[in-house]
Amino acid sequence: MTDKSPAPAPEAADTASGPEQPATAEQGPSGAQEEPRADTGGDEAPAGAAQAESGEQAVDEPARAEAAAAEGAAASAGERGVVKVSPAVYKRLTTGLGGFTLAMGACLLLVLAIFVITPRDNKEVLPTVDYASQLWALRSDAPFTVYAPEGLPARWRPTSSRLHGLDTGGKQPVAWHLGFVTPDGEYAALEESNEKADAYVPRMTNSSKPIGTMLVGGESWAKYHRNDKKANSLARPGPGGMSIVVTGTASYEELAVLAASLKPQPRQGGGPAPSASPTQGS
């Protein structure tokens, strides 16, 4: 009988060839394992791409920082109100006539600011004068007995002295003005002349009617006052038809101090000239 059992032979062949397929798939013609190499190459490619990407990020990082700094500067400039100009405009503004004008304007603004913030005293400071030479001339040539202050306290500061008519040879009245700043910071003046009293006294006192009398140094002085000019005055006649007036914005008490200091002066050559500067005193 014919046995057809060889049919399992193909299975055996298949079985024999079946286990060989994995080896064929894993090995190349040279017997080396190529599939793991392919897998390794696949793993290295993403790693290389990652390194390239990180390199690009490192390169872009300074550019991004500069861009961010530029944006921040632009934003801060916009907040400060800074106007961007082209190089040509900048050069025109900082050089030539335009730059000079801007620089001068800045200097003027600085000077104005200093002027505004600097404290100032608006009171006028009058210079101190020495009236010794004019007093000497009066003692020599005046046609009347001259009265001058002696022993005034040092805080009485002489600020003006004027002579009139002394060089006219008697054709005009002679007059002397001597002004002081008082210890209280007020003004007081000695006025004396051989002009007629009815014209001279009202002009010096700014008033034609006395408001009373005041006894100073044993002498009676007529008191005058002018409201609109804040003028107080004391006046009395002197020897030989001359007149003596003390007047100013000072109080009657300070005017009395000046009046009490007036002493008749000897003619030149009759004795030493008195000091024309106030002396220490109370």
TrEMBL record:
Keyword Membrane: yes
Keywords linked to the UniProt accession: Membrane, Transmembrane, Transmembrane helix
TM segment ranges: 97-117
Low complexity: bias regions: 43-57, 65-78
Listed Pfam families: DUF4245 (PF14030)
Region (Disordered): 1-78, 263-282
Keyword Transport carried by entry: no
UniProt xrefs under InterPro entries: DUF4245
Source species, domain of life: Bacteria
Name of the protein in question: DUF4245 domain-containing protein
Organism the protein comes from: Actinomadura napierensis
Lineage: Bacteria, Bacillati, Actinomycetota, Actinomycetes, Streptosporangiales
